[in-house]
Amino acid sequence: MSIQQSDVLYTAVATAENGRDGRVATDDGKLDVVVNPPVEMGGSGAGTNPEQLFAAGYSACFQGALGVVARQENADISGSTVTAKVGIGKNDEGFGLIVEISANIPNVDAETAASLVKKAHEVCPYSKATRGNITVTLG
Fold first, then answer.
1. Does domain 49-138 have CATH number 3.30.300.20?
2. CATH architecture of 1-48
3. Which residues contact 119 (CB under 8 A, 6 or more apart)?
4. Closest by alpha carbon to 121, among 100, 104, 105, 98?
5. Which of 21, 30, 73, 106 is 20–30 Å from 120 (CA)?
């Protein structure tokens, strides 16, 4: 299901120069970073890279979705963290991504934590955007 332009609450705008070996900045000046391929991909590794930026966005978004689900379930997720590991590698079409999402939720039992993570994966906008496009595993 797609959203209509009239339903958009916020739009982020970022511009990249020189692709994976350059710079990316937002129009509001809040983000302005040097991007370089990691050493493993032949780059200098001097700056951040798109996979790190994607992991940062995905983990933050997923944590927010976890909060929504926890409120619905009356679960205490205080002190919780979400980690996104984003890998890039070759596939049949050139390159693709793979993601592993894990959450540490100290105030609930393992079964409840797993249920909350599964439900958060259903509502997280990043999870929805990647569903069917890349492999995402929940750990």
1. yes
2. Single Sheet (2.20)
3. 69, 73
4. 100
5. 30
